[in-house]
Design a protein that fits this description.
By secondary structure, the protein is an alpha/beta fold. The chain folds into 2 domains: 135 residues, Up-down Bundle (Four Helix Bundle (Hemerythrin (Met), subunit A)), CATH 1.20.120; 207 residues, Rossmann fold (3-Layer(aba) Sandwich), CATH 3.40.50. Strand 12 and strand 13 form a beta hairpin. The two termini are 30 Å apart.
Length: 353
């Protein structure tokens, strides 16, 4: 691990703290423009999270933590207890920006805890905690990359979904971190990425990230995934997660469930890669997860131009839930859960809230 070439494989940062403002790489403009938005108010951060300027559960949590730091500049409090009361509306607005991503609530809970008993230095404690949230995520991603890659036999092909790389995290990535490590170690010979409609995160973001690292990747239509698996070119499907339940059920980008079903049918292994902050032991199973739905217009139009006949409705859920019975391994920085179920999850994450 110490000799891994991070200078080559870990160069992208979607969230940057500038001391007086938060800078977010506007992922809506990728891959054709690399533009950072400079945000100075927590309301701007909440709006950016909701509008998918920043996306990916870990990156959302990190952005929200820095959003609290910005919110602190708008309140007047002499200690942490007073600050918590005054910051409550801001934290609620940040939390409501993307309700499915557990990292968002997790990061906000950490910020609350950081200043619960603080004195006059509560602002400094908030900023230190936000930095820690970001630094710990990067370290976790690098650890997961190595652990996940170790499960993959040399010469394998992998398929990934949505974007789970540096753009979705503090850096390196979760599922894409496994792919980066696997390619570097010679374990992964072929990488396929689904387009991930309707926002095309795979087409716009994942293949762009891999291109920056000099990793060859082949883009496929979402509808081609099962056929690809049938050809024997893929031995693993490697995905991220927005929430992992106490029994291992996993919420991730819409389309993940059908990949898991196809993978099981064709004997392809299915790996979920996520930091332990994504594990929600308070939610027993996937049927209890609130699934975010977005505007139907995202399906009915493209770049502002309607592409579907007037009067046609659309259903646009952003996530689906993959049952733990379809998952071969959940990889976290704490370790790997093989064939996850409630007992196996409890063994590794009993202290998770």
């Amino acid at each position: 691990m110490n000799t891994f070439d991070y200078a080559r494989y870990d160069r992208i940062r979607p969230v940057r703290w500038g001391g007086d403002a938060l800078e977010l790489l506007d992922q809506r403009k990728l891959p054709f423009a690399s533009q950072y938005l400079r945000l100075t108010r927590y309301t701007e951060v909440a709006d950016a999270i909701h509008a998918l300027v920043v996306r990916g559960a870990p990156a959302i949590g990190i952005a929200a933590a820095w959003g609290v730091v910005l919110a602190a500049r708008e309140v007047s409090a002499e200690n942490g207890g007073e600050a918590l009361q005054q910051l409550a509306p801001a934290m609620q607005q940040l939390n409501d920006a993307r309700p499915t991503a557990v990292n968002l609530a997790w990061a906000l809970a950490r910020m609350r805890k950081a200043i619960a008993g603080a004195g006059a230095d509560w602002r400094e404690k908030l900023e230190a905690e936000a930095r820690l949230v970001e630094d710990e995520d990067l370290a976790a991603n690098r650890a997961m990359g190595m652990a996940g890659a170790a499960l993959i036999a040399p010469g394998s092909g992998v398929l990934t979904h949505c974007n789970t790389g540096s753009l979705a995290t503090a850096g390196f990535g979760t599922a894409l971190g496994v792919i980066r490590a696997g390619v570097a170690e010679g374990r992964i010979a072929r990488v396929f990425a689904g387009e991930t409609r309707p926002w095309n995160q795979g087409a716009r973001l994942t293949v762009w990230e891999l291109l920056q690292d000099g990793i060859g990747a082949t883009l496929i239509a979402d509808a081609a995934a099962a056929h690809l698996m049938s050809t024997g070119q893929v031995q693993w499907v490697v995905v991220g997660a927005d929430r992992i339940c106490a029994n291992g059920d996993t919420a991730n980008k819409i389309g993940t469930l059908q990949l898991a079903i196809a993978a099981r049918h064709f004997g392809v292994k299915f790996m979920v890669v996520a930091a332990s902050s994504t594990v929600d032991m308070a939610t027993k199973s996937g049927d209890l997860i609130e699934i975010e739905e977005r505007d139907a217009a995202e399906l009915l139009s493209h770049r502002g131009e309607r592409t579907v006949a007037e009067g046609v409705p659309a259903w646009n859920p952003v996530f689906d839930v993959t049952p733990h019975t379809l998952i071969d391994a959940i990889v976290t920085e704490r370790g790997v859960v093989h064939r996850p179920d409630s007992a196996a999850m409890r063994q590794l994450f009993a202290e998770n809230p």
